[in-house]
Structure formats: C-alpha cells, structure tokens
Amino acid sequence: MIKFVLQNADGRYFSKDLDWIDELKASAIFCYEHQDQALNKLVELNAKEINLRAQVIACDSANGGKLSPIASSSSAA
Questions:
Q1: Quick check: 41 and 14 in contact, CB under 8 A?
Q2: Is 47 helix (H, G, I), strand (E, B) or coil?
Q3: 73 — pLDDT class (breaks 50, 70, 90)
Q4: For the chain, what is the radius of gyration of the CA atoms?
C-alpha cells in the first residue's frame, strides 16, 4: 500500500510529535493515505514556517511497519 509522507530539505521526516526525525518508521511519522492530505499538511506547515523546504514523497508500506521511498519516475529538465 502506498503512503505519503513529508520530507524536509535535510532528509528528515515529519513525525507525530510535530518534529522532524531521521527515522522512516510508520509508527513514528505522519503517514497519509492520499497525496492531497499530505499536501494540505505541507501548506499548513509552510504558512507557519515560510522558509521550510519540504516535499511530499510516496512510500511503500508493504514491509510491515517499515516504509521505503518509491523512486520518482519523472525527470526534471
């Protein structure tokens, strides 16, 4: 199953404790089932911290509680 998470420019993930952590573990970070939910949270966070550089990334949650990022198939020109 695909889950969406927030990752900042330092490679850290938005946790349930409202902090950025290094660990990509489903029980510790916010996981969203829909991309638009993650985007809404990103907009909220950007409104509070205008210098935040973060993105929504898709992760595969098939490995129990461990998430693994899915490589993006789009290429920037």
A1: yes
A2: helix
A3: low
A4: 12
Read off the tokens for 4.
């969406």
* Cα separation, 22 vs 13, whole angstroms: 6
What lies within 8 Å, CB to CB, of 9 at 6+ separation is: 53, 54
Q: Which two tokens stand for residue 1?
A: 């199953």
CB 46 within 8 A of CB 59: no
Question: Could you tell me the strand order of the sheet in which 2-8 lies?
Answer: 20-21, 13-14, 2-8, 54-63, 66-69
Handedness of CA 25, 26, 30, 35 (dihedral sign): positive
User: Could you read off the pLDDT of 7-23 as tens digits, one per residue?
Assistant: 999 999 999 999 999 99
Helices (H), 12-56: 35-48
pTM given for the model: 0.84
